[in-house]
Amino acid sequence: MSRLTPHLTRDRTEQYLLGALPPDAAAELEAHTLTCDACARLLQEEALLDEQLYEVAAAASREAVVLRPARWHRPAAAAAALLAVAASVFLMLRPTQGPGEGPVPVPPVAMVREAPQEDDAEPLDIMVACPDLATQEHCLRSASARGLLVYHPGGMGEVPRYDASTRLPDVALSSRPAAL
Amino acid sequence: MTTLQSRQETDGALRPGAAPDEEALSRRALAGERGAWDVLIARHQRRVVVSLLARGIRVDRAQELAQETWARLIQQQQRGLLTELRLPHLALAQASFLAADDARRTRRESVDSTVEDLPERQQPVDPSQSAERRLLSEEQLTRARDALAQVSPGARNVFLLACDGQGLPHSEVATRVGLSVQRVRQILCEVRKKLRTALEEETHV
Fold this sequence. Notes:
The complex is a heterodimer of chains A (180) and B (205). Chain A has 180 residues and is mostly helical. Chain A has helices at 10-18, 23-35, 37-65, 74-96, 108-120, 133-145, and strands spanning 127-129, 149-151. Chain A has 2 domains: 10-64, no CATH class; 70-173, no CATH class. Chain A has a two-stranded parallel ribbon with strand order 1-2. Chain B is built from 10 helices and no strands. At the A-B interface, helix 1, helix 2 and helix 3 of A face helix 3, helix 6, helix 7, helix 8 and helix 9 of B.
């Protein structure tokens, strides 16, 4: 009886825990773990990993809420500034582009960053964290052109500065702060 | 049918995310609406079962306990004992309580009966080892966080959406990020593999 059902593989166990197995395959897997201790153990380990992943995700998303632009690494800030320039160029060029004109040479990075923001479709709640004092002006201009809120590094703008300890209201950050 | 339809209506009214949707569902469940309960149970059932499996409970027993969890929650709601419904946390707490209760009862029974009848079947894994492993150490967490930082932003977004504790179903994650459900699951498997190696690194050292 138990010899007929195959042992669990890691992949199949993962699929089962994800709920991706068809019902009969899932039932077969369950029946097998009832008769095979090694497979029951494997299933438990995978389930435990699942729980740990939830823990990791909870820790990670809690950290992502805290905005401290002053501590951003230099290379990251430079990359963000480049992205901001590229995105704003893309934004400025896009409306003028008629349907008949050829494609404007846009750096592919800007295209990639652009796509998920448009999915959100409610730009009013998006807060833009300006990376640096050097690029702040530019960032502010391009963001206000899009009607976004800007988070200034110096805390001088329309959005107040938040300390690391006070959590931003979750509603305001239903989408994560987007670096332009 | 009607519940599905009204759910879509609330979806349309409160577009930004499923959190308000979940909130509305919880409110209706608290008011005693069976349809809302059904939707919530379907959404969180897998999470509850997996959490029970992670405690070393057999599949069949885990499913029984999950059923009992929901039954108890509905019972409490009908008696007016539930003031707020925060899923999946409430269900997970209830399930872990039932699991502990269950373990206690079987242990007591095994003391009463003969040694041969010891219910090994119910505890396939050494519980001390799994209890020790259940809590992640700080190093493990930072390791996992580093590994997560190396994952591509899209994949990380999918992972965080799927695992952030709200219990979003994969189909909903898929519509939010604009991918297919299969692709979402594939991404979740990849992230999981990376995090597994990150978490296990420390235990072998």
